[in-house]
Design a protein that fits this description.
The protein is α+β, with helices and mostly antiparallel strands. The chain has a single domain, classed as YaeB-like fold, CATH 3.30.2310. It is about 25% helix and about 35% strand. It contains two helices and four strands. A four-stranded mixed sheet has the order 1-4-3-2. The longest helix has 14 residues.
């Protein structure tokens, strides 16, 4: 069994996440999902630049859904993933 890859969330990405204006609970859920789920996700969705893959996370809150898209570098180190870009969209959940 290969060791679990570690995820690097650079300070610039943390700053971008902060600019999304999300509730603390959503930020905590996002960061937990990044560290718990991202290392287990397949890297099949490659970018034009083969050093990166695209990863998507979905976080549901009682009245809102949040969708995140990340570009992830998995070519620098076999043991590490590094998020190089992140985007966010949200929408109201039907009641």
């Amino acid at each position: 069994m290969s060791p679990r890859r570690k995820v690097n969330v650079p300070k610039a990405i943390v700053t971008i996440i902060g600019r999304f204006g999300l509730e603390r609970e959503v930020v905590n859920s996002l960061l937990a999902a990044i560290h718990a789920e991202l290392p287990e996700m397949p890297s099949n969705d490659r970018c034009d630049d083969d050093r990166f893959f695209i990863s998507r996370l979905h976080i549901r809150r009682p009245f809102r859904e949040h969708f995140f898209v990340m570009f992830v570098d998995d070519s620098t180190s076999p043991d590490h993933l590094s998020i190089t870009a992140i985007g966010h969209e949200s929408r109201d959940r039907p009641h």
